[in-house]
Recover the amino acids of this structure.
């Protein structure tokens, strides 16, 4: 597995650490501010990533937080209910909780694409390679140690019409092992209906990823279909404009 260095992301790893600190105050309800994030309060208001020349709507629904990733994008996280915990949950309880997150970001600087992307078939080939290289899994979960590994279980990449950009949609399921926060647990990462587009208003090839991810214990059933009304409008809301520079 190729390992990438991500200075500003590894979102689930950082967020779970914040959840652990915040959970010490349970049964007080968790708030986005306790996770060093901002609450999504206006689901119809677009979030601009001006430096990268795109904007998106946040996920719809309750308990969504967001955090800006310097100038490259924005991440989202749905606060889990922690139902059934009569006392502050342990680290393993928290890590084992089903988590939903989103990432809207440029891949520039993480995985630059030197080849020109002139059509959807070329983009499909690149995204298929990035899935097999576990780029998206490492961005979401982080690769904090050499024992932290991912195994692709299934994936599908297809073309999708999206504004004036060349875009593809992918679905993938990945097995995660060796998480330093719970090394004895095995997880599944599901990426339903994610979109990757070549930015149409920059001369060099720059890829924008609009992702949604569900993480749960391997052996459990995925539940993201119940949240389609929350994540599909977000994934499908991508709009482009000229970059600030």
């Amino acid at each position: 597995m190729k390992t990438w260095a991500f200075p500003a992301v590894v979102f689930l790893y950082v967020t779970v650490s914040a959840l652990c600190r915040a959970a010490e105050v349970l049964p007080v309800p968790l708030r986005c501010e306790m996770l060093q994030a901002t609450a999504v309060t206006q689901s119809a208001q677009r979030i601009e990533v001006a430096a990268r020349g795109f904007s998106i709507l946040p996920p719809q629904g309750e308990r969504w937080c967001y955090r800006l990733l310097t100038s490259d994008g924005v991440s989202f996280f749905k606060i889990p209910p922690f139902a059934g915990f009569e006392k502050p949950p342990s680290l393993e309880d928290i890590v084992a909780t089903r988590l939903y997150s989103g990432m809207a970001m440029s891949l520039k600087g993480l995985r630059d694409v030197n080849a020109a992307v002139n059509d959807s078939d070329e983009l499909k080939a690149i995204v298929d390679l990035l899935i097999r290289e576990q780029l998206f899994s490492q961005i979401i979960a982080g690769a904090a140690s050499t024992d932290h590994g991912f195994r692709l279980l299934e994936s599908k990449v297809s073309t999708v019409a999206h504004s004036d950009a060349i875009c593809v949609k992918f679905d993938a399921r990945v097995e995660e092992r060796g998480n330093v926060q719970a090394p004895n647990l095995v997880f599944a990462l599901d990426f339903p209906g994610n979109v990757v587009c070549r930015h149409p208003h920059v001369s060099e090839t720059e890829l924008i990823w609009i992702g949604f991810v569900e993480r749960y214990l391997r052996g459990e059933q995925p539940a993201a279909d119940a949240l389609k009304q929350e994540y599909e409008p977000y994934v499908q809301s991508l709009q482009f404009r000229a970059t600030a520079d």
